[in-house]
Amino acid sequence: MAEKPGRTPSDVLREILADWPKKSDSVDMDAFKLRLAPYLAAGFNSSGFSNRPFGEFSILSNELVVGDTAKILVYDSADPQYPNLAVLSLSHGKWYLKKFLFQCASCFGTGVLGTDPCDTCGATGWGLINWSRHETDL
User: Is the full-model pTM beyond 0.85?
Assistant: First the structure.
């Protein structure tokens, strides 16, 4: 898929979200993964596919671009109180979805539980820490 000039991370994310299934949809996950493969960064954790909305996903924030990484908040139109975080990375002039995470249900996005770093999300405020691969980076 050739990248159109001037495409922003938000443009790419809108295309991805337009094809993202809802919780109520019956989905062949293998076909879904194959369909989205051109949009996914190498190493995208397929657990992100379980993050499916009750309504429609919509972009909630402006994109924050720092270097080759963009972060964008997304919400479920049927449950807007819990945002999701899309992390995109730029590679060879094209934006790819690197991570798609839900807000941590333990710390509610703060990364802190009381006075301690949240051990559910790895103190990031997003998703679940991947203990087996020691990933807490965003």
Answer: no
- φ, ψ for residue 102, nearest 5 deg: -90, 160
pLDDT tens sequence across 80-117: 888 889 999 999 999 999 988 888 888 888 889 999 99
Q: How far apart are CA 26 and CA 45, in angstroms?
A: 21
Query: Which residues in the chain are classed under CATH 3.10.450.50?
Result: 9-102
Q: What angle do CA 130, 39, 73 make, to 5 degrees?
A: 60
CATH topology of domain 9-102: Nuclear Transport Factor 2; Chain: A, (3.10.450)
Tell me the pLDDT tens digit for each residue of 120-131: 888 888 877 764
